[in-house]
Amino acid sequence: MPELTRFYGIIIKMLFSDDVQHNKPHFHVFYNEFSASVGIDGELISGKLPVKQLKLVEAWAAIHEDELYAAWNKAVRNEPFNAIEPLR
Question: How far apart are alpha carbons 68 and 82 in whole angstroms?
């Protein structure tokens, strides 16, 4: 699973050809023992994250929405995508 970015102990990844299960552009978030799938629009699709980390992820996704959609479009075609700047 290729990594998009990491910040404050949060790791964000995107799978190739991952458009079947959720049918919605999304990425995967890992923080300590927590993991979740989050829509590019910030919706928590599945899994769990602490509230503080979810809010950080939502803010990051809002800032990088265009880049996330570009990465998603490449990922569903099994094409490599670029990393995205972390939240600072």
Answer: 10
The domains of the chain are located at 3-76
pLDDT tens-place string over residues 58-80: 999 999 999 999 999 999 889 99
CA dist., res. 25 & res. 76, Å (int): 9
Four-point Cα dihedral 16, 77, 17, 60, nearest 10: 60
Q: What is the pLDDT of residues 28-59, one digit of tens each?
A: 999 999 999 999 999 999 999 999 999 999 99
Sheet holding 10-13, edge to edge: 3-7, 10-13, 26-31, 34-39, 44-48
